[in-house]
Design a protein that fits this description.
Elements: E1 3-9, H1 16-24, E2 32-38, H2 45-55, E3 59-63, H3 69-78, E4 84-87, E5 93-94, H4 98-108, E6 112-122, H5 127-135, H6 139-145, E7 158-160, H7 161-164, H8 175-185, E8 189-201, H9 207-210, H10 216-228, E9 237-240, H11 244-254, E10 263-264, E11 272-273, E12 276-279, E13 291-294, H12 301-309, E14 320-322
Parallel strand pairs: 1-2, 1-4, 2-3, 6-8, 9-10, 9-13, 10-12, 13-14
Antiparallel strand pairs: 4-7, 5-8, 6-7, 11-12
Amino acid sequence: MLISVLLPARDAARTLPEALAGVLAQRGAPPFEVICLDDASTDATPALLAQAARRDARIRVVRGEGRGLVAALNLGLSHCAGSLIARMDADDLVHPDRLRLQAELLARDGSLGAVGSLVKCGGDGFARLEAWLNATVTREQCRNARFIEAPLVHPSTMLRREALGGGWEDHGWAEDWDLLLRLVEQGWELAKVPEQLLTWRDSPGRLTRTHAAYGQGRIFRLRAHYLARGPLRGRAFDLWGAGPTGKRLARELEAHGLRPGAFFDVDRNKRVARGRPVRTAEELPPPGTALMLCAVGAAGAREEIRGVLEPRGYREGKHFLFAA
């Protein structure tokens, strides 16, 4: 078994040496190569990569044309020889046991198409996301949470080459989350090594902060796309959340010809949302009558909804699903 570490870099001279050093210091891992995709850098990145490749034969450098991340990833993938593909970014830090532990998890469970790990989010304003990511670990948790956020942080992810198929796709929204949703749609499971194996460093120039593909409008469109052809296909549904988040998701679902039978909300003053009645918890139908799609943005709201639905016999993943 060979692992290919796929590491794209563009103008990453400041952080690249530390990221590469972490990858090359892996302990007890199967044989691995590092495919470094230099995506038309104009700083010292090409020189740093050339120097690193001369020092370590496991490093291979591929020159990209600056056509964006999806093109860079797929070009790099075409040079990967491994049956396992481990993503890594040029500005993140990796634990020395990452490759070994993730390869072992994939070897133990043939249903897994991709595995991640717990992460430390190095940046301000990420405490809530970090807590959610690190509480979303098992196959069931990742499957049930896949429409809330991407359950695996992409640079922490190792994928089976057969699950990855033709690679990443550019639909104008987050390519990493799109890939995970496609894997689940195709029958693969996702899970995590329950250890922190990556420090995910944030910066003002990070694509998730600057590129339109990661903006909220595109993210709601992505959710609606995969909900429409997955859990909501041929199935009646209601929508819990008559506030801005729920109504935004409902609007995107309408583009697929899908409308909830009713909205549900804890606010008794809400009567109508997007032409549908707004009902209260006391009016909940029996579990299984329709899928309850929950789209709420406030901190603690998901826990509050579970506290209402589960005592009434609703099971997450079967009778209700969170989508924000």
